[in-house]
Each structure stands twice: as structure tokens, then as C-alpha cells.
Amino acid sequence: MIGSIYGLIAMGYSLIYSASGLLSFTQGELLMFGAFLGLTFYKYANLPFVISITLTIAIMFMVGVFIESFIIRKLVKAKANLIFIVLATIALSIVLKNFAMLVWGSNVFQFPQIFKTGFVKIGDVNVDPTSIMAIVIAFIAMLILHFFMNKTRFGTSMRAAAQNPLAAKTMAINVSRTTYVTWGLASALAGIAGFLIGPVYGVHLEMGTMIGLKGFAAAVIGGYGNMYGAIIGSFIIGLVETFTAAYISSIYKDVISFLVLIAFLILKPRGIFNSKVYDEE
Amino acid sequence: MLKIQDVVIKFGGLCAVNEVSMDVEPNSITALIGPNGAGKTTLFNIISGVLTPLSGDILFAGNSIKGFRPYMINKTGIARTYQNINLFSNISVIENVMIGQHCRRDSNLFQTLFRTNYQVREEREIREKAMEILDFLGLAEFSDFTAKSLSYGNQRKLEIARALASTPQVLLLDEPAAGMNTTEKGELMDLIRQIQDTGVTILIVEHDMKLVMSLAEQVHVMNYGRKIAQGKPYEVQNNKDVIEAYLGTE
Amino acid sequence: MIQKKMKYIIVTVFLLALPLVFIGNSYFLLLLCTGMIYVIAVSGLDLLFGYSGQISLGHAGFFAIGAYTSAILSIKLGIPVVFSMLFAAGLATMFAVLIALPAARLVHHFLALITISFGEIVYLFVSHADPLTNGFSGIGFIPSPSLGFFVFDTNMKYYYFLLVIVAVLLMFKNRIIKSRTGRAIIAVRENIYASDGIGVNVKNYKILSFALSSFYTGLAGALYAHLIGFISPESFTLNQSIIFLTMLLLGGMGNFYGPIIGALVLTLGTEYLQVLGNYQMLVYGTILLLIVVFIPSGLIHVVNLRNLRKILHKRTTAEENDDNA
Amino acid sequence: MEKTTVLKVEDLDYKYGSIHALRGISLEVNEGEIVALIGGNGAGKTTTLRCISGLLDAPESGNISFYGESIVKQKSDKIAARGIMQVLEGRHIFSKLTVKENLSLGAFNRQADYASTLQYVYTLFPVLKEREQQEGGTLSGGEQQMLALGRALMSKPKLLMMDEPSLGLAPIIVRNIFEMITKINKDGTTVLLVEQNSKAALNIADRGYVIESGRIILTDTSNNLLNNEEVKKSYLGEK
What we know:
Chain A has 281 residues and is mostly helical.
């Protein structure tokens, strides 16, 4: 369950990285934002589930597009140092978090149950149907994204622009459009993740920060910028965490995740797959 | 002075430099020519330690410098300039040259923190020497400008100034005349001769034939990662392979 | 030259006299002391980010190591505070070297990430290692530093104590920057390939700047612990690292005055914005975003001191470049 | 018969920060021609091409018109859509995409006669058909150059601009590529060719421009340039 959520976040990181060579620190807060949006639509506006999630996705997509067009592009155009762009995304995540506090307050919200029954029995184990739904939807989202990127003309042009923007420009591809769509998609993925995780863990301001960092760890482990590596990395992080919580102590599950991340950054920084990490290359 | 022996390097299956050997005589001007992509800059990167060859050896004054990191190579006495200018662009011209002396100076952090006499004297010497070098290259008037505000030609000169600051025995110049007009090229030629007169050995990669033919004592020609010819300028100019690969066929 | 000396004298007299104006306003003095501690911490961050070009989002971690180490050593082992502070800064430096050894090679965003992770680990550690750090309840009754029989136990005394330390540390920073070592650090920021090619051992200087930087920030942490007398994990979150960065960027990095201006303006400014309550971080975030997007070189370049000075003193360009190096 | 001017560049000035890269470049390309732009490294050849195709910021001053319409401040994708295709120096194929995907991106903005154009490209370069499903990065240098050229042709360009097509290729392959350029030209595509291999370029071109330090210093028919003493000395390496 948690692995598939990390997967959605990690794919978002990878998308952005492969398209712009940038690291966005906003993914976690976008997840939180998505969860709050979902909560608002589903609980307070009493909209049906499907409509709520669609609305959330649509709004989150727009948020991503907005971030790219009004902040990131400005910085890239001004030839700002990469690190300033990273800083901008960090600043943005603080703004998002505190904006959410302004709107929704800092309480923990319970997402209303989506299914009537409490548990579903699979073999001998009781499983929460919401978790199953989350995994299924996450999986479907990944499939759709895979299909979109590989089988559609626009998806191919997005991959092309990510690989070699200069050449893509000479191919009559509007690179700025593929870039903001990428940010939109990444943001939408975070939104879906937030919407899915809300009913299981509750909705609150801090929910995104840890998940965001761990999703990032997953992306690193999978080989930064590699969508499929990101998914594998997510399951590794998910498993490490579950085992730590079960056998060592749930307090240290975060510490262990960070240690795994640091170990990967130091020992195998290219991840299971390959990507550029060193300054001197 | 500098001896390259059977050096090989590959980039993903492609042999970028293939068993190249060459000798650079002390205090000579030696040129390396060939079409774009022939492996000249790659060879420079090998000599200056940016790349480590798969096999072969590089000898400097009789000692192998293979596998040295670039900063170590600089300390042994080989300095270089870059084809696509690599200056410290946001700091002043004189500071660029002061940094160039880094490997020849030795004041440490504690001398710095307590400004010992030694450190103060060294600092003054560094500044004076930097100024001398700028004078020599005709850049003195720009000493307080930021490096990036210089014209293209002057940026190339500053690269040379910074390299000279490390008092090299061998100076590698990677396309120093690129983007210069005829007058600037003329000045550059004079400058290179003057540097030679101070006892520095010069290895130069250049496309401008006029410059190469009038400066170089020895010319090596590369194509496709291999050395295809070497000799005096006029010998090379009349070499069939060279004409075929580089200078152009009828 | 005389004018320069005059300026120093005026500034010194002003700084010495400042607390006298606020006798009785202990709260303001506390604020001023906090601001000065931030000046140290942010100057440290400046050495790393502003001069060597390496980002750290984990400086709250070094701040925490400094604060906790000094507090624990002085309380549990009874080590004199001045020594426990130095030891604490040394420990922070050691951790920085340990991090930098492998991390200094990483590109910016990975470095950002690894330093965040470091900061988070330190935070999680101090929150949960109860026997040592007392967990979330924090450590109280941290003693004040003393020299001989003189104890710096009031905010006024602490102010003068800090004034000396800040002056020495800033002087050291300035000396480092205008030296062979400092130039090598700047070279690394400007162009890694060229630095390497011109004889600068890039890796060593990256590690060195990490070490110097964390010494400053670690010492600031220790000074903070002994000023407030109480520390708890919540002062050392990622938010604190971001506050350091915001101060640095607001003031202007890679610049002598930048960290001073940034740290003081934000410390005093946000204190007076207390009405904002919970929304303090919203303000920080917004400030940071606006600076990054609109004035990445910081306040120092908006209020261009160089130009101002040029008008006032008609100094030569050479000296100006010197100041700005 | 009056020839139609396809591309007209007038007094183009371009700066990269403090570096004045182009200082008043003017040139013309007429329909059906092959025009060569020759000069040394750093002379401004690539900058000129990239100014035309909109890959750089707008130039300081000067005008570029395509079939009489100014394109000087347009974005690269609009310019490409008008029919100016550039084959970049160093080929810049999409190395992680298959040969076929690469080609299909060439036709990004025209799908109408996709199949027949693909057929045309495959007849020009049969090797691309063989390698259809391979990733671009696995091709040899010469094959990559063919792919880059083929990809540009997929859009049926009105003007094909080639930047250093001979770069890093064996003489025999260079000959092959240049023959293909001649053939493409015969089939009706106007070509602007930038080359350091001046002789090979002038041999297939109708006219040539010599560029030095951001200025056009000489222009003439290819034959005259090939026999010009100054050109021989500086660019052809003859005495």
C-alpha cells in the first residue's frame, strides 16, 4: 500500500527530473494539498467519489502547470543557478503548507469511509478495502501514464523534449508546452496519491513532508529520472519501512529510510538504473 | 619533455584515441591538428589528467604522470587553457590569476586566520606576480573587472594568464585563436612566441592553418583517433594522407 | 585610511553603547543576542553556500549538535562552558567532515537531499534518544558561560560576550576569504573543471568549507543553548535550516555584510510580526520565494553598498573589489 | 527567370552576454540552391544557423525573412513548422527512442503524407529501415547522421539547414552523406550547408559565403571561391 503511494510520488519526481533536470521539493506538499482537496470535495461538498477524484486531479494538474509557468520558467529563463530553482521549490512547499493551514487549519481530519464494510478477508488476513482500492487506482494511474508516454504522439514528444530539448525544438515541438504538461502530470500524480492515502492515514498538514522525502528516496534508489526504476525503488522503501516497523521499532522506521537513502546516495548514487549525479561529470 | 606512448581511450565502444604516441621537445612549439572529432581535445584531456587512458603511458620529464588527477598534473608543471573558455567568471581578472598560483604557494588555514608575517608577505607576492603576468599579456588595465565582462579575445588571453601563473614548464593551448579576427590572431602569435622565449614548452591545438604553419616547429596530425602524420609544417602540408583527411582533396 | 579607521571606531562605539539604551528592556537584548547568534550561524552557512557554492539544508543539524553537545557536557560532566562550547563546535565540524567526505561529489539537488536527511536524522535522534537528550521535553537549566569568576548570566553581559565572539569570527571569515584558501574555495564555486586544472584539489576544499561552515554553525548552536538556558528538538527542525537559508539569501550571499543584514533583519522583523502567530513560516516561505525569483543576490545588492560607498568616499575600484571578493 | 528568395538574412547582430558573436551578417538563399557557409571554429557559423531557426534569444538587431515574411522573433517550433528544418551539429538524435520514433518526431507537425514520406526516407537510407526498432543511441556515427538527416526530411522541409554534417565521420561516409545532400537538393529541397570541410562543401554547393569573426568577408560562386587565393590559403590549407 504505502509502496504504491511512494511510487506515485517517485514517478512525479522522475518525470520532472527527466523533463527539466530539476529536483522539485514540492511533491510532498502537493500530496498534502491533493488530500485536502479530496477531503473538501468528498466530505464537505458531498460529491460522489469519482467526481471528487477527477476534480482533484484536474485542479492539481493546473497547480503543476501554474508552478512551472510562473515560477520555474522564470528562473530557467533568467539562467538562474540550479540551486536557486531547488530553493524556489522548497520555498513553494513552505508556502503551500502554510497556505493549507490558513484554509483548513492544523487539525487531523478523518476521511469518511468509502466502503460500507470494514474489512475484506483475503485468505486468513483481514484487509482494508480502501487500501486495496488505493493500490488498484495507483496501479491504473501508472498504467495510463505508461501508455500515454509510450503510445501517444504527445507522450513521445514529451520524452523527446526531455531527452534533447534542442533537437526537439528543431522538430516543431513546443518544448515549453511539453515541460508544463510534465509538471502538471507530476502534480496530478501527487494529488492522486494524497487522495488515496487520506482515507487510510487521515489528512493533516504534515502528512506530505515525510512521504515526499521518502518518495524522493525511492526515486533515487530506482535511478533518478527513470520512471520504472522509481516504482521498484518505492516498493523497496515500502518494504524496508514495513519490516523496520514490524521487527525493530516504528520510531526508527523514518531513520532507517533516511539511512537507506544516504547509503544509496553514497554507495550507489546512480541507483539500480543509471543517472547523472556527480558534480564533475 | 613530454612523451606520449601508445595512449588508448574509448568512449562506449568508440575508440576516441587509438595508440597515439608523440614526443614534445623541450622549449619547442608543437602543434596538433586534425578535423573536428579527431581526438585532439581528448588527447589534451588525457595529458592534463581529466581522462585516464585505458592503456599507454604519459611521461613528463621522464616520470609517468598517468592516473594523476588534474590538480596534481598542474603541480608537476603542466598547465592548460580550454577550448570553451573556463574562467572563474564572477570574480575579478586579477583574482583569476591569483588563483592560478595556488599550487606554487603554501600558506595554510592557521597562518591565514592569524595573518602571520609569512602569510601577509605571500599574499603581497601573489598579488604582485599576478599583476606582472597581466602586464605581460596586456590585461593590466582590466585587473579589477570581472572576468565575464572581458571581450572574447581578452577572455582567451586571461585563460593563458591564469595558466602561466602556475609557472608551468609545458603549456597546453586548446584552440587559442578560435573566434579571433586576423589582427588578434597576429597578436596572439607574437604572444605565443614571447611565452616560448621565457623557456616554456608549448603544445597547441589549432584550426587556423596560417597560425599553425608559421608558429609550429613540429606538427602532428590526427584523424579518427589515430595519428596519421608528423613532421615539419611543410612536410605535413604535402603529405597525401593529411591532404586527404583534413586539408581537402581535389 | 583615516576615514576607514573613523568608521570602525564609530561602529564599535555604537555597538558597545547599544545595550545601554535598552537597560531594563531585557527582552530586546535577548532578541539582539539571538540575532547575533544567527549572524554567526548564517555566516557559517555563507562560507559553504555563498563561497564554495554547496547547498546545505541540514544546518539545523549542526546547530543542534552544537547546542546539545555543549548543554550535555556542561550539565552532566560539569565541563566549563567555554570549553564545552568549543568541544561542541568541534564535534559539529567532525560530523560535517564525515558527511562531506562522500557527499561533496554530489550535484546540487542530491547534496540538498543528503543534507536534509542528515538534519532529519539529527532531529529524530535528539527527539528519541531520551536518556541523553531528554527527548521532546528538552534540556533545561543550561549554565551560563563564565571566564574566571565572571559569569555572563544576564542578557546584557551575554551581549558583550557575543559581541567579541562575533567580531572575531567575522574577522576570521574575512581573512579566510581574502586568502589563498578562500580564493580556492571561491574557485570551486565558480568552475570545478578549471579549479581542478589549475591545481586546486576540489574535493579537499569542498570538505574544508563544510568543516569551516559547521564550526560556525555548531558554535552558534552552543551559544544559543547557553543563552536561552533551555533546548528542545523543535528548535532544530528542517524549518530552522530553511530560516538560515532565508536569512542568508535575504541579506545576500558570498558577501561580508549579507549574513549580518539578513540575520538581524529577519530576527528583529519576524519578532515584531509575532501577531502573525502560526503564519510565521508562511511569511518566511513567501520571502524566500520572492527573493529567489526576483532578487537572487539579496538585499545587499538592492541597497548597493558599493555604490553608496563610492559616492561617500570616492574610493578606488580596486579596494571595492577587495571588499566584495 | 527570376529566382524566388527562400531565406534572406539582413544585418544580423548577435551577442552572447559580452561576446559579440555576429556583427552584421547578411546572406540569401534562393529556391533550389545549395548554399555553403564556411569558416573556422568560433567564426559564427552555428550561431547564424541557430539565429535563423529561433534556438537563440532574439538577435540584437537585423532581420531574417522566409519567403518574404519576417521570422526573426518567432519561436523555434513555429519556425520549424513553417518548413525550416535544421540538422544540428553533433546530430542530436533522441538516443533512447527507436529509429522509427525518431523519424515520426520529424513529422511531428505533419501527418498527412506520413507513410509516403517515410517510404522516401527509407529509399534514401535503406539502413534506417533495417534498424527501425533499434534505439537511436545504438547506431554508428554515420547511421546517426543519416537518421538526423532522415528525421529532418520527414517534415518535407522547404529549407534544410545542415550544421557540420561531416563532423567526426570517415571520408567515405562523408562522401556518401554529401551525395545524399545533392540528391535531396535535386528532389527539390533548398539547402543551407555549414561546414568546416570547406572543400567538400564548396564542391557540391552553388554559392558560398566565407565567415570570419562574425562577419561575412567574402561571397561568390563555389567555383570562384575554390580558386580564390585567400580562401585557398586560409581554409583549404594550400600555399
